[in-house]
Amino acid sequence: MKKILISSALALALCQSVGFAKNYAEVNGKAVTEKDIAPLMRSLPGVAFEQLPEDAKGQIINQAIERKLLIEQAKKDKIQNSKEFKEALAAAEEELMLQAWMGKQIEKIKVSEAEISQFYNQNKDKFVQPEMVRASHILVSSESDAKAIIADLKKAGKNAAARFNEIIREKMQNGSAKDGGNLGYFAKNQMVPEFSNAAFKLSKGTYTTTPVKTQFGYHVIYVEDKKASGTLALNDIKGQIEQNIKMKKFQENLKKEGESLRKKAKVEIFK
Questions:
Q1: For the residues 203-231, what does the mean pLDDT come to?
Q2: Of all residues in the chain, what percent carry a pLDDT higher than 70?
Q3: Which of 23, 115, 151, 190 has its CA 20 to 30 A from that of 39?
Q4: How far is residue 12's CA from residue 9's CA, in Å, rounded to a whole number?
Q5: What CATH code is assigned to 131-228?
Q6: Which of 81, 82, 80, 34 is nearest to 60 (CA)?
Q7: Quick count: other Cβ atoms within 10 Å of Cβ 256?
Q8: 4 pLDDT tier (thresholds 50, 70, 90)
Q9: pTM (predicted TM-score)
Q10: How confident is the model at residue 73 (pLDDT cuts 50, 70, 90)?
């Protein structure tokens, strides 16, 4: 549901390790896991697999199955013994060495409290947070299903919040909901207009009394909290600022290191 947001965090990605556990399918007795999904999700930066519509999830899973089958065939054909594979492997090793080395350089960089405070004070205009809403939703295929959920919530009265969470679990377990759960905090421009307009009109602790139709289906939305727009406090973004400064220092250090190594090297450029 969230719009695609393109971000760049190369150096941080070098240091990250991800555990894969969830299974989506099985092919020839082997599980298709998040590890198999990950390469296909790289074409959608900033989007989590669980945020995709059901038909898109199905397409990704089927592509992962086909990819796994092709890998199995490549192994059967002994591609690992070919000259092309060995050359590609050598190139990949060099790239991994560079990435690991860069990760080590980032770890060495220190950022002082004074640097963080100075950056914050000089860039306060960049830390203005828009109005935010924290909401949960239940997404179903039909308007009648959404109306039935709303009627159920009305019967719950003061216990509507607890009942909302119960309905999410029930609907997800029996497969009658296409999606559901806590969306966390989001700004108005992070969701499709129909969803945002409905969510931001609600008061804290209330839910939509009519189904909200979007391109994904029919939603029932419950707003758990709201935050007014304002400048973020230093403590709230201290880690983000530290990483920004660290990245800037890393880029400067990398440029100096490259220039220094180039001066010592014998370089010929052919035209």
A1: 95
A2: 92
A3: 190
A4: 5
A5: 3.10.50.40
A6: 34
A7: 10
A8: very low
A9: 0.53
A10: very high
262's enclosing H/E stretch is: helix 234-264
Distance CA 119, CA 258 (A): 27
Q: Tell me the domain boundaries of the chain.
A: 131-228
Please give the C-alpha separations between residue 38 and each of 14, 18, 60, 261, in angstroms, as whole numbers.
15, 10, 10, 36
Which pLDDT does position 53 carry in this prediction?
A: 85
Distances (CA, A) of 225 to 179, 200, 207: 21, 10, 12
Nearest CA-CA partner of 188 in 237, 150, 226: 226
d(CA 41, CA 49): 7
Beta strand 132-140 with 206-207 is unpaired
Cβ(224)–Cβ(205) under 8 Å?
yes
Mean pLDDT of 160-181: 88
